[in-house]
Amino acid sequence: MVTEVETPRGLRTAYWRVDPVLPDPEIVARAAALLRAGGLVAFPTETVYGLGANAFDQEAVRRLFAAKGRPVDNPLIVHVAAKNELADLVREVPAVAKDLVGVFWPGPLTLVLPRSRAVPPVVTAGLDKVAVRMPAHPVALALIRAAGVPVAAPSANYSGRPSPTMAAHVLEDLDGRIEAVLDGGPAPVGVESTVLDLTVTPPVILRPGGITAEQLSAVLDGIAHHPEHTPGRPQAPGMKYRHYAPRTPLWLVDAPPEAAAARLGALAAEARAAGKSVVILTRRDHRDRFPEDRVVVCGESTDPAGVAAGLYTALRECDLLGADLILAEGLPPTGLGRAVMNRLRKAATKTFVNGVQT
Ligand code: TXA
Ligand code: MG
Questions:
Q1: What ligand is nearest to the CA atom of residue 50?
Q2: Each residue of 76-99: pLDDT tens digit?
Q3: Which ligand is nearest to the CA of 207?
Q4: Of the bound ligands, which one is closest to the alpha carbon of residue 204?
Q5: Fewer CB within 10 Å of terminal CB in the chain, N or C?
Q6: Does residue 282 have its Cβ closer than 6 Å to ligand 1?
Q7: Using CA atoms, how far apart are residues 5 and 13, in angstroms rounded to an integer?
Q8: CA distances from 48 to 41, 135, 164, 192 (A)
Q9: Would you list the domain boundaries of the chain?
């Protein structure tokens, strides 16, 4: 059953609820018309909510950067509704891209390839490469198809904030700055797509995400991780900017579970002694390790996909508690744990690896 609710009073952005599996074609058509007219429409994907603009409309794309407060040197992903649309956006589709598209599209894998002239340079921040993905969410696919154009869409958060996994998060950041949001319920994966650069050999994971390195290895002969997110490697000064971040300072403790619990407990006690209020971000199965503290739980240690699904909501929840400090427990970088740790490291104002501040 498809329902439309009226835009709740007080909202300046149009709010349309759609069924996540069978979105009402009339509502989708209305949103698509906004996109074609140069408007900005937020919509659910399987990873996070995206903020869409017609990728062929330079003016709309400029408005998109402004609405998000996004630096114009950070390129956008172009979203398509069919596998064969990739060929219109890139200069050539190498065999490896065809293999990956065959296995992982639609889905949370973004491919970076040489840009065709059809894509305006504003979309790629002037780069000669373009990032393209075909999302798996029925609402995203219906919207792109109805718009009849490829849709440039970053995550629909204000720049630097945690990505939105619910329409309410989008409105928290962007109400009044965009034309409409389609509410299709929670985004199931919870972290963004994996961004894979195919213009180099071997391909490089620029951003770990919804498709894991383990999954990619089944299709690719070789694969490299961008040095910025190789676990444990110290970052070059200047590369460390805050991203995906709550407003509250966040310290990340990355260590084996027993050591992490001890360290988090000690840091919390120190902060309390200094008159600061603390919230600990951990997993449900570790809840009892912090009897003294306020705790937000996110997933189970044995299920990194569950942690990914709840991560951004948990970060926003930590903020709402109004503490002075968030102390977050890391998890092993296997499977989706790698994407979660990448986001937590970027959100952190301080990181402790095995007890040492990095
Ligand atoms: O799951 C996702 O990918 C979500 C949903 C909405 O599709 N989108 C998303 O977009 O996360 P955004 O803009 O928040 O992140 C895009 C990432 C950035 O790290 C950007 O630097 C990288 O992709 N990127 C985009 N175009 C690129 C290019 N031409 N070369 C290298 N990296 C690129
Ligand atoms: Mg983003």
A1: 1
A2: 999 999 999 999 999 999 999 999
A3: 1
A4: 1
A5: N
A6: no
A7: 13
A8: 14, 10, 6, 6
A9: 14-225, 250-357
Residue ranges near ligand 2 (ion) with Cβ within 5 Å: 155
- CATH number for the segment(s) 14-225: 3.90.870.10
How many CB atoms neighbour CB 225 within 10 A? 17
The response to whether residue 125 sits with its C-beta less than 6 Å from ligand 1 reads no
Alpha-carbon distances of 132 from 84, 141, 188, 317, rounded to whole Å: 12, 14, 20, 31
- What pLDDT does residue 339 have? 97
Give the residue-averaged pLDDT of 255-283.
95
Q: Is the CB of 157 under 6 A from ligand 1?
A: no
**R_g of the chain computed on alpha carbons:** 20
pTM equals: 0.94
For the stretch 227-253, pLDDT in tens is: 765 544 444 433 446 788 999 999 999
Rounded mean pLDDT, 147-166: 97
For the 250-357 domain, the top CATH level (class) is alpha beta
